[in-house]
Amino acid sequence: MNTKSTIQQHENLDSWIAESPETAAGQNDLQIVFSALHSLALQPVSETYQSWLRLFEADPNADLHQHPDHVSRLISIYHEMYPQHPGYLMQCRKEEALVAIGILSPKYINTKTLKGIGPARTLPGYFLCGNRFLIQQEIGQDESILSHLLESALTFCQKKNAAFLLIEDLLVNTPLNHSIQDASNRFLTYSHTGFQSRSLIHFPDNSEDYWNQFRSKSRRKHRRLLRQNSEMRMVCITQPDQVVGFLEAAHQISLNSWQTQRLGLRIKNDEKELEELTFLALQGWLRSYLLMKDDQPIAFKVGSQHRGVYCDLEFGFDLNFASVSPGETLLLLILEDLIQHDTPQIYDFGEGDAEYKQRYSSQLTQSCAMLLLPSTIRNKLRLHYLKTSRFIDDLVRKCLKASGVYTALRQIVRYGKLGSR
What we know:
The chain is of the alpha+beta class. Helices cover 37% and strands 25% of the residues. It is built from 12 helices and 16 strands.
């Protein structure tokens, strides 16, 4: 299918139309329109809102970040953060019916984050909310249509002078990734993370049987750790009126976590986080946790549960308490809570690999952060620079790992001493 798209500005609207070529089936009835989110009427009574919500509810793989209420709560925040780069709603219609949606939100990325060597530069672009398109189930497996959606989005990014379209968490065995690989000769791709192991727990029909996968020695170790930390208590956060206090506590913990030391402050306790967690709580999808010791919060887990999947969104513990293993203690208590109450089918540990994730998981897959870039001379030069930088970074890491220095440094940074977990 020839999917090269052109973008035309629509008269009197802050929107653009992507002209649709013929599909593989010989049809020419796909129309894609990009509309600035701040210009849309997203009241629940509007047709845009209702058609968007119907598509969300009908898509079995819909991500919480693709819900119209979630997006609408963040429009003003993104507008304040990125006044020159508004977010856009990408609507794909077939015979006047809405069959797919993409939410493009503004994103700035520092070349240091992308493992670039030398002076840091900030690149403007967009990220695809939910790491996928909301799409009608009948066409969701059609990789030619997914390729067309991707290329239309990239053409739009180029029209807006955006350097990239970011898919922050791309799962390897998905139609979207297959479409990216098949269409990679028509745009540029770069992943600064590469595909990494991703850990999942598939809870058995009798969820109590989950513990039977562990050897008796491991089960005894779990029980011993919980006995040693029996004075700690866990608080489950699910209600809107708990969100403010939870964010305050998680922010304080995050200030002294290894994640913040290595990756930057994880929980900022800002307006965006407040809106996001409040939305989840209002929908009944928030399921986060705090670990308390002597009424002091020492570890947290930000999580949500939707359609049988528990998503581990963020985690941290206070390094001052690393010696008593607060992270593993909290995880054990969370697993017990999930097994005893409203057990999900799947626990998704989220992006990034870690030994403890693999230890508690029952399945491994892969995911990565993926940048898609319009195929321009500037982007080809940029990609060459980034790939060369990443090669050097990977080489240095391999040398450090071979010498044993890398593991020692990571343990010191994360836990304050060697030999800890």
